[in-house]
């Protein structure tokens, strides 16, 4: 049997709000995105400013979740990106002022998608499309369906218990 060629994972920049939602819930699109990153189906790009925001918000509002986030950073392949001045310049007209570092990190890392719950703060451009987590997951289901993976539940993949992902993180 010939094995299919492995393709590179899609580079996706993850905003802090999606990281927090995905870490704190076992359900929902934000969590699914983190699982796809763990499975190396997505290359998760984390803006340095977003990582700092997650740490700051968790420490202030949910300190017991800080170790969960640090474990995630150790266990799941991610790229933490500090944008350059040039990246900032390219992002300046496409994001609210406080969100420029997030989009700049996506641009500088070559991410094709920025996933955020705050899409009104950003505009797509410079090769980066801005989407909500649900949109990315719906598109991922379509990709899997194009490979004949899925069942009669609307194209959702049917996985055996052994194939189901095990997140490296523990639930609070």
Write the layout of secondary structure elements.
Elements: E1 10-14, H1 16-24, H2 29-38, E2 42-47, H3 48-61, H4 66-75, E3 78-81, H5 85-91, H6 100-109, E4 113-115, E5 129-131, H7 133-146
Parallel strand pairs: 1-2, 1-4, 2-3, 4-5
Helix pairs in contact: 1-2, 1-3, 2-7, 5-6
Keywords:
alpha/beta, 7 helices, 12% strand, Rossmann fold, five-stranded parallel β-sheet, 172 residues, 43% helix
Q: What profile does the largest beta sheet have? A: 5 strands, parallel
Q: Termini, distance in Å?
A: 43 Å
CATH architecture: 3-Layer(aba) Sandwich
Order the strands across the largest sheet as they lie in space: 3-2-1-4-5
Structural class: alpha/beta
* CATH fold type: Rossmann fold
Instruction: Compute the number of helices.
Output: 7
How many domains would you count in the coordinates? Answer: 1
- Cα gyration radius (Å): 16 Å
Q: What is the C-level CATH assignment?
A: Alpha Beta
Low-confidence stretches: 159-172
Number of DSSP strand runs: 5
Strand content: 5-15%
* Helical content class: 40-55%
Element order: H for helix, E for strand: EHHEHHEHHEEH
- What sort of overall outline do the alpha carbons produce when their principal axes are compared? globular
Q: Mean pLDDT across all residues, rounded?
A: 87
- For the record, what is the CATH homologous superfamily label? 5'-nuclease
Report on the structure:
The protein has 172 residues and is α/β, with parallel strands linked by helices. The protein has a single domain, classed as Rossmann fold. It is built from seven helices and five strands, in the order E-H-H-E-H-H-E-H-H-E-E-H. Strands 3-2-1-4-5 form a five-stranded parallel beta sheet. It starts with 9 loop residues before the first strand and ends in a 26-residue tail after the last helix. Residues 159-172 have low confidence and may be disordered.
């Amino acid at each position: 049997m010939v094995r299919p060629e492995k393709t590179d994972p899609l580079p996706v920049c993850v905003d802090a709000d999606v990281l927090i939602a995905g870490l704190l819930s076992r359900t929902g699109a934000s969590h699914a995105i983190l699982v796809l990153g763990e499975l190396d189906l997505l290359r998760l790009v984390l803006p340095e400013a977003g990582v700092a925001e997650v740490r700051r918000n968790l420490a202030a509002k949910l300190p017991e979740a800080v170790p969960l986030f640090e474990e995630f950073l150790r266990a799941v392949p991610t790229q933490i990106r500090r944008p350059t001045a040039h990246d900032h310049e390219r992002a300046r007209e496409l994001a609210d002022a406080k969100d420029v570092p997030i989009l700049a990190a996506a641009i500088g890392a070559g991410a094709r998608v920025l996933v955020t719950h705050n899409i009104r703060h950003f505009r797509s451009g410079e090769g980066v499309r801005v989407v909500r987590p649900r949109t990315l997951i719906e598109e991922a289901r379509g990709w899997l369906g194009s490979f004949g993976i899925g069942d009669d539940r609307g194209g959702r993949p049917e996985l055996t218990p052994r194939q189901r992902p095990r997140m490296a993180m523990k639930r609070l």
